[in-house]
Amino acid sequence: MPPKIKVLHIIKSLGRGGAEMLLPETIKVHDQSRFEFHCIYFLPWKDQMVPAIEKAGGKVTCFSAKNNLTLLFQYPKIVKYCKENNIQLIHAHLPWAGIVARIAGRLAKLPVLYTEHNNFDKYHILTKILSSVTYKFQTKVLAVSEDAKAALERRNLFHDIVYVPNGVNTDFFSKTNHFSQLPEVEGFVGHDKVIGTVAVFRKQKRLDIFIEVAHLAQQQKLPFKFLMVGAGTEMPMIQALVEQYQLNNVMLAGIQENPADFMQYMDVFLITSDFEGLPVALLESMSMEIVPFCTNVGGIPNVVNDNRNGVLLKSNQPAEILSQLETQVLNEITNFESLKKQARNTVVADYSIQRMVNQLETIYTEVLQHER
Question: How many CB atoms lie within 10 A of CB 341?
Fold first, then answer.
């Protein structure tokens, strides 16, 4: 049997973001008789996914860094790690990890793949500059959405860009699965329809709009409950608005080890973001027959076909969003049930984790064959 191909994933942190949570899921599905996976991250306080990666068979190392700039100076450690562990290929995720991976890869004379999870145009100016300078040091870019791919092509930064959409475990994320029952959530939900989200609470998510929709729903006494799973820098703002409006139709569940336990109660997955890549939580929710109501940004319209398997919001105005929810969730019940089924069918057909892993393994193999 030939020796295993050793792949090193490099990522800024291992918190509960979409890119981070994909690592253990893909490693579990990969052919580990052919591939061996290592992972380096830099923010030691964001380590929630470490046990899952190790359980899946990955080897995890933290090169501690306090911020983005100190992260860049970890490149000598990465080069040394690659040599000591006979790494053959580096696969980086998210901008600053991509920058340091390209530097280390060039010095270690290794091919570097980089997954572009977002629209390059949305990055901070310093991130854009350093990414642009180092982009030529990589071998191939894997874009999770057509939007991300198009943004790079417009800038003429790099030419070998492949569309590799995210995938999810459709067997696990299924209404037929047996999830843990949560009496507190069941008591909160009652017989109302549940509008939910699972996210890292960043500014781009525009969760203030989510809360404003909940506020209007409470004022109009509509049978909606709003369930928010996650945390982040926007949490104080969200908590302040919930208190200001005295909202009793919103539950802030915080960070959860098993978000699917909460997702089982959701009828609608509401995304109000200003920009996105291809949210893994969106695919997970659709796989669970939760109907997506989303802003028409990033990779979302690659997945959500308006009124076929979900709803693309006509506006980011809370009153108009609530009007769409009321019409399609409460009044058009037959169509809403059809949207649930079609949401899952879409993910099973085109966005399974197995499809994603097969594509990645093909790319890894082709890149290494070309390097020889």
Answer: 12
